[in-house]
Amino acid sequence: MVRILTSREAGRLLKRRAARLDEAEAVVKPILEDVRRRGDAAVLEYARRFDGFDGRSVRVSERELAAAARGLAREFRKALRVSEKNVAAFARMQLPPPRRIAPAPGLKLSQIVRPLDAAAAYIPSGRYPLPSTVVMTVVPARVAGVETILVCTPKPAPEILGAAHLLGATHVFQMGGAHAIAAFAYGTKTVPRADRIVGPGNIYVAAAKKLLAGEVGIDFIAGPSEILLIAADGDPRAIAADMLAQAEHDDDASAILLTPSRRLAEAVAKEVAAQLESLPTAATARTALKRNSAILVVSSLEEAVELSNRFAPEHLSIPDASLLKNVRHAGSVFVGPWSPEAAGDYASGPNHVLPTSGAARLRGGLSAADFVKVISVQELSEQALRRLAPSITALARAEGLEAHARSVEVRFEKKGGRRC
Prior knowledge:
By secondary structure, the protein is of the alpha/beta class. The protein has helices spanning about 10-15, 20-40, 40-50, 60-70, 75-95, 130-145, 160-165, 175-185, 205-210, 235-245, 260-275, 280-290, 300-310, 340-345, 380-400, 400-410, and strands spanning about 5, 100-105, 105-115, 120, 150-155, 170-175, 195-200, 215-220, 225-230, 255-260, 295, 315-320, 330-335, 370-380. About 45% of the residues are buried. About 45% of the residues lie in helices and about 15% in strands. It is globular. It has 16 helices and 14 strands. The model has no long low-confidence stretch (mean pLDDT about 95). The protein has a six-stranded parallel β-sheet, with helices on both faces. A five-stranded parallel β-sheet has the order 6-5-4-7-8, with helices on both faces.
């Protein structure tokens, strides 16, 4: 079922199929403009057409949210609180602290940290409802101090609505797709405007976020989910299970194992086939394994790490921490046999909203830092400005900006025009 290739054949596999965002952009562009012009009327029209919505307002009432929370199973509620606790702890660690330095007498420099006013989270609920994504988006925003936390989902699964209510979302909307992204970006009478939109979605959501970046902040443009595993030995059952956990996401998901052991490669391939037989999501997993996945036999673990850096995977699993020093590009790293990706997906603490399609070359996953601004502050005494004046005026005049230079010099001139 899963191919076994050599590292010489890695090129085609590691070169992802380009997402056809250009086609999706052509579809969503008129929707974005329509929502900008007509606001709630357009949002309702698209929600009825694409989301199966049949209500009067896309906003979910407090009564509905409270009822969903009350109806949550005890086991689910307990799991939610465990996940919330660990995600909040990790988010607090990620927040940039306020700082102050005085590099010279009279020169006081600092940074202050302020939360965004409003943030929006897109929660998918198509093939699978994802209440875990409510945790991963709402909790970091709450830790950052965001006052208005908006959540949208195209299908109101009770677990999503209940989780949003318990975790502190201030507004929840039953809407999805490009029209939801546009509503958050532009604001309507019903939907407050967001400063930043985060969370995964389908190709139309990704296209909408790309087109509206600049109008509104975004996290990143998500593509199909992916995992890359590196192992020289280990339990083939666990490795196969990790590959299948990724492959069951959707037809475009990717699961790749890099190993210097042909014996392990064959054992894992055999286990994948065996475990597929009893997997409820086998149809999806089989397609993902056939299209986008493989086991690569490499010459060494060092070659495996280098191939991984070329791929810049969303999820990277490594056998032990000794390889971390050479990892340059990855969304999130899972170290050792007791750190499955599923732990990070749900409860260990680091965020599961991660860069895909090679974007891990540029940034890590969603962070509490995405929900704050770091504002620089400077305070100079007269003597500090006097010491810096020659440098400031020389640089300003080199750029042809005379008023900049004079704005410093005028402070040291008496009213008669002489320097003081």
